[in-house]
Structure formats: C-alpha cells, structure tokens
Amino acid sequence: MLENAGKIVSKTLMFTILALFAFAANSVLCRLALGENTIDASSFTVVRLLSGALVLFAILRMSNKKKSLSSNGSWISSIMLFLYAITFSFAYVTLDTGTGALILFGSVQITIITLSLFSGNRLHLSEWLGVTIAFAGFVYLVLPGVSTPSVKGFLFMAIAGISWGVYTLRGRGSDNPLADTAQNFLRTVPLVLVLAIVTLHNAHYSTAGIVLAILSGAIASGIGYTIWYVALGGLSPTQAAVVQLSVPVIAALGGIVFVSEAITLRLAVSATMILGGILTVVLGKYLFARLRQVGRT
Questions:
Q1: Which residues contact 239 (CB under 8 A, 6 or more apart)?
Q2: Taking a C-beta distance cutoff of 8 angstroms, is the pair 134, 281 a contact?
Q3: Given phi > 0 = left and psi -120 to 50 = alpha, else beta, which region is 150?
Q4: What CA–CA distances, in Å, run from 131 to 99, 137, 237, 294?
C-alpha cells in the first residue's frame, strides 16, 4: 500500500512539474508574439486554439482507445478555456508582464480557494500560512514590473484568471485527461471560427507570430494542459492553486539558463518564499498531525 502511495505521489509530482514548465513556456511564447507585435491578439488566439485542437485530436485518434473516443469533455470547460485564451491575449496588449502576472495569478488563487470554500472544504491553518507566504513571495518577485493597469487590461486579465481557475477545478474529476482536454479544445472550434470572422478586418500576422502561436497552442497549451489534468488527480484545490505561483519563478530561471540573465537577490528571496509556501501547503497538515501524535505519546 505504501509502495502504491509512493508511486502516486511521484507521478503527481512529475506531472505537476512538467505542467508548470509548460505554463511558463506558454507565457514566454505569448509575450514574445504579442509584445513584439508579430501577430494580433485575436489571430494569436485563433491559431493557438486550432493548433491545440488539431494536435490533440491527432494524438487521440492514434491512441485508438475506446475509452478515449467515448469521452465527451465538457462544454463548460471548453467555454472557460476559450474565455481564458481570448482575454489573456487581449489583456497583454495593454498590460506589462509584472502587472499581468499579478492580476492573473491573484484571480486564479482567489477563484480556486473561494470556490473550494463554498463547496465545503476548509483550509488548515498551515494551508492559509503557506498560501500567504507563497503569494507574498510572488508579489515581491513581480513588484518592480507592476504599474497602474488600464481598466480594460485589468478586466480582461481578471476574467482570464477566473476562467482558468474554474477550468482547473473542473479538471480534477477527469478520468481520461487526454480525451477530455482534446474534446475541450475541439469544442472551442465554433467559438474560434466566430472570433476569426468578427475580427478578420483587424487581423495582422507574420510567419514568426504564427509559429509562436502554434508552439503555444500545440505544445505548451494542448499537451501542457493534458499533463495538468493528469496532475490534478493528485492535488487538492488549494495545492493546485498555490503551485501555479511557481510559474514566474520557473520563467525567470529559464531566462538565467537560456538568456544568461543574472541571478538577483530579489529572485532568490522570492523563489525561497514561493517554494517554502508551496511546501507548507503540501506538507503542513501532515507535519501538524505528526506533531500532535508525538505530543500524545
């Protein structure tokens, strides 16, 4: 039994780390495309979602499993996925990186924890402590890049965070992550086509912009979100909320490794706070229970 539990924990940890790296890569790809104005926000979203749907459908067909083909996904999850993708793209047209990240992850945290509380889950003292420490570290990391957001940018990014929070919670019940993610992407196609038609007159794109959108949709989003759905099976709602705060740290570390950026004191301190907060959320209840047990003996 302990061996099986260990395998489940190891699987959850591995898929969580892979998903978080995919999220970080997705953020970088989106910022590269939209920040350099290589493609407009609508076209980026259209290419992103369509490429994700095509790749996932191809993988689903090649898997040739009856269970995969019988899964229908969810219209609600698909709408949340579309809302997240389109509002995220439009938000970063007017927001800088630090401000956008603060609004996005703040909205994700509030959404997941609030809905979890409404559903009857109560956070342990250690979970509240861990969430507070991790979020404080996240704010400290992005603080230098925070500026007063435009009303439009704030609303778009807040909707993106709420949508992603709902999408995350709904994914915790997935029995077949690949099939559900593929079907969720496929169900966004009608919405994507309407978006493409409505915004066609404002469309502009380049080869670089399209390539970045395809990489974002096919790999970082499509495959990344499938991995995230697998990881969610072993995470509580609070854990799912707080681990995502590590994404900016991973992105910053990627800058150090691939762009030779310097390690700053701010990054070191914030990374320690975020990872310490995550560890408190993940292990806090267990450690408190052990301490009580020791105290009684």
A1: 281, 282
A2: yes
A3: beta
A4: 20, 10, 12, 26
Domain boundaries, the chain: 2-296
* Contact criterion met (CB below 8 Å) for 267 and 113: no
How far is Cα 82 from Cα 160, in angstroms, rounded to an integer?
A: 9
Annotate the chain with three-state secondary structure: CHHHHHHHHHHHHHHHHHHHHHHHHHHHHHHHHHHCCCECHHHHHHHHHHHHHHHHHHHHHHHCCHHHHHCCCCHHHHHHHHHHHHHHHHHHHHCCHHHHHHHHHHHHHHHHHHHHHHCCCCCCHHHHHHHHHHHHHHHHHHHHHCCCCCHHHHHHHHHHHHHHHHHHHHHCCCCCHHHHHHHHHHHCHHHHHHHHHHCHHHCCECHHHHHHHHHHHHHHHHHHHHHHHHHHCCCCHHHHHHHHHHHHHHHHHHHHHHHCCCCCHHHHHHHHHHHHHHHHHHHHHHHHHHHHHHHHC
pLDDT tens track for 172-205: 878 889 899 999 999 999 999 999 999 999 899 9
**End-to-end CA, the chain:** 25
CA distances from 257 to 17, 159, 254, 263 (A): 17, 32, 5, 10
Asked if residue 70 has pLDDT above 60, the reply is no
pLDDT band at 293 (very low <50, low <70, confident <90, very high): low
Indicate if the pLDDT at residue 4 is higher than 70. Answer: no
205: β partners: 39
Q: Give the position of tokens 């996240």.
A: 138
